[in-house]
Every structure is written in structure tokens, then in C-alpha cells.
Q: What sequence folds into this?
């Protein structure tokens, strides 16, 4: 059984080009699919918590103030979110339009990053004019995910986190998948169980309510380390 390996000095095994080579071989030699799938899983699949942040009000704000105004607001949102993500041990994978995607070792790290982002935005909003008020929604998933470093994410928990953060959550809402909620440490957070029907599927989720503890902004929770 054969699968391509990255030659010395070439792209690292987690690079997108390496994935393309594996997928091309899988399509050309279906008999080797099992071995190639194992190579892909070994190189790319990680058990991570996924945070999807979506900035609210795109259509309304661009209609009223134009796309450049909204792009400037996206930049401010990133200024709040990136330190919050890194400060809680997260790794930013990509940014698309007004969405930011990051991974963490644990769901509580992802949740704390979302909370720190909301708190930073709230502080910004106290000095911003009404037309520049910043609000985000967040979706959090947790489970085996194909991670292409600094490029992309694939997997069922990624899909669910996107649906929760982009399509369902309102301004300042944080929604967690069942797997992400189950991965939270007990006795630290209050969340309400809820369910939605979207894209022909029943999506069971949990809406963050409040913390049962307090910590200063940007002070990482115990054990916050970058995901491997």
C-alpha cells in the first residue's frame, strides 16, 4: 500500500497541497482508499473545539453606510477577537468576510474566548457612535475535525458550529453543540437546552446563559494551552 509523502524541504504534511495529492491518489486508485484515508486522518484530523464568530448586521449596515464602513468595523472586531482567542489558547485558522474561525483544545477555552470577545466589544461600544456599534454571534462545536493549519476546517462539528454561529444565533448569543456542551467542565456554566430545524436536520444545541465564576478580562482559564 502506497501513499505520497512530502519530500524534504517541501510542504509539511498538514499543507493543503499534501491533502490534494492524497485525495487525487484516492480518486485514481479506489482500491487504496482505506490506506489513504488513514494517512489523511493521521496528518489532518484533530479533536478540537471550534469557535465560529460572525459579525451581525451586514446587510443593514452596508445598505446604510456602505461596504468600506463595514470593512472598517470588521477590522475592529478582529482587533477584539484575536487577542481573546490567543489569550485562551486558541489557534486562528481563517477569516472569511465578517467571520472568524478558530480551534482550541477544549470547549471551555472556546467559550471563554467568545466571552472575552464580547466583553472587549462591549468596552469598545461605550466609546463608539451608534452607527459603529459592534455585535457578534458565536457557534461552538467539539469533536474530530480535519484541520488544515491557517487555511480551513472540515467536519460535522464544524458544520454545526457554522449553522449555530452564522444562521441561528442573534447578536451577543453563544450557542454550543451537544458535544461542545458535554465537554464543558461541570459546575462552571449555565446553559439552556434548545433545538432548531435547519437544512432539513434537527439541531440540538445549548445557549450560554452565565458563568458561575468570575475572572478578569484576558486572564486565561486554568490549563489554557494552544491546541496541538
A:
Amino acid at each position: 500500500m502506497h501513499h505520497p509523502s512530502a519530500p524534504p524541504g517541501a510542504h509539511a504534511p498538514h499543507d493543503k497541497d499534501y491533502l490534494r495529492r492524497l485525495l487525487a491518489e484516492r480518486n485514481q486508485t479506489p482500491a487504496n482508499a482505506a490506506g489513504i484515508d488513514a494517512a489523511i486522518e493521521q496528518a489532518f484530523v484533530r479533536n478540537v473545539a471550534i469557535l465560529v464568530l460572525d459579525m451581525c448586521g451586514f446587510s443593514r449596515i452596508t445598505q446604510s453606510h456602505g461596504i468600506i464602513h463595514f470593512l472598517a468595523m470588521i477590522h475592529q472586531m478582529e482587533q477584539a477577537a484575536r487577542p481573546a482567542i490567543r489569550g485562551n489558547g486558541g489557534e486562528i485558522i481563517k477569516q472569511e468576510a465578517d467571520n472568524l474561525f478558530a480551534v482550541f483544545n477544549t470547549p471551555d477555552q472556546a467559550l471563554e474566548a467568545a466571552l472575552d470577545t464580547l466583553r472587549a466589544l462591549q468596552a469598545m461600544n461605550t466609546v463608539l457612535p451608534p452607527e459603529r456599534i459592534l455585535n457578534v454571534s458565536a457557534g461552538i462545536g467539539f469533536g474530530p475535525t480535519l484541520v488544515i493549519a491557517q487555511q480551513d476546517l472540515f467536519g460535522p462539528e464544524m458544520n454545526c458550529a457554522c449553522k449555530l454561529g452564522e444562521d441561528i444565533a442573534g447578536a451577543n448569543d453563544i450557542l454550543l453543540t451537544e458535544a461542545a456542551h458535554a465537554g464543558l467542565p461541570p459546575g462552571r456554566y449555565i446553559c439552556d437546552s434548545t433545538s432548531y430545524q435547519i437544512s432539513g436536520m434537527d439541531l440540538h444545541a445549548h445557549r450560554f446563559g452565565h458563568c458561575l465564576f468570575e475572572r478578569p478580562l484576558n486572564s486565561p482559564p486554568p490549563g489554557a494551552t494552544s491546541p496541538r
